[in-house]
Amino acid sequence: MMNTNDDIENYAKVLKELGHPARLGVYKRLVKAGESGLLVGDLQKELKIPGSTLSHHLSALMSVGLIRQVREGRTLFCIPQITLFQQLLGFLHDECCSDGAIRGRLKAIEPDIRSSTEYKT
What we know:
By secondary structure, this protein is mainly alpha-helical. 64% of the residues lie in helices and 12% in strands. It has a three-stranded antiparallel beta sheet with strand order 1-3-2. Strand 2 (67-72) and strand 3 form a beta hairpin. Helix 2 crosses helix 4.
């Protein structure tokens, strides 16, 4: 599968947001909760993150579509967007080992490469 520049840009943004330890912890906890998500207050208590800091991290995760928030009256739920996460994993895995044919050709000439680069004492 060929990835477009837009795909690469979008997934880079997602990975950037997950690259912060606190956001990765928040997202991991939400993924563990599943599609029902968690109450923001419960997430805050469990992770021991101040409300304003948690709000900042949740906004960052929402900005790239990793989570969404649903309000029911005065209750606010955070729900992980599992589909985007699965698409990200697919994006990273799609071309895994697809250069196997090239690697096979390199293995065939590897002894020649090694012998030409070894230092003789």
